[in-house]
Request: fold
Amino acid sequence: MPKIIVEVMPKADLLDPAGKAVANALQRKGNAEITNVRIGKRIELHYEVAPTEEQIEAAKQIAADFLSNGVIEDVVAVTVEN
Amino acid sequence: MPKIIVEVMPKADLLDPAGKAVANALQRKGNAEITNVRIGKRIELHYEVAPTEEQIEAAKQIAADFLSNGVIEDVVAVTVEN
Reply:
């Protein structure tokens, strides 16, 4: 099934308390090499047939306007997977 | 900065109410071509230096044991980004 994958992460200069908690837990478990953890979203849009160029553009717009909050998040990737 | 990206999605046979709500909203907005939406997690593990093979293996183990819940989620990808 064709998909468009949208990846959204909290902005770099923003605190990510959940990520920080995971980083601390991993360090306590002995993974000192992991300096930080950030937790974002991976959103799959499913299509019946492979999306057209126009639908891919629409998906990028949806990613920016609707699936992410531009104040606190960045869309880091929009990938088509047919 | 080197990263390992862990991608986690709800299992295919599991309901994803948030994803369903987004799919309904997108369809109402006129994107009838989007048949379904699934929302998962994208977790970045940050490293000071490029992770060794052993650290990559450890990260895969962390992804399976710690960053995902095997009952309801699948780790769909573990990618190194140097």
In short: Chain B touches chain A through 31 residues (CB under 8 Å).
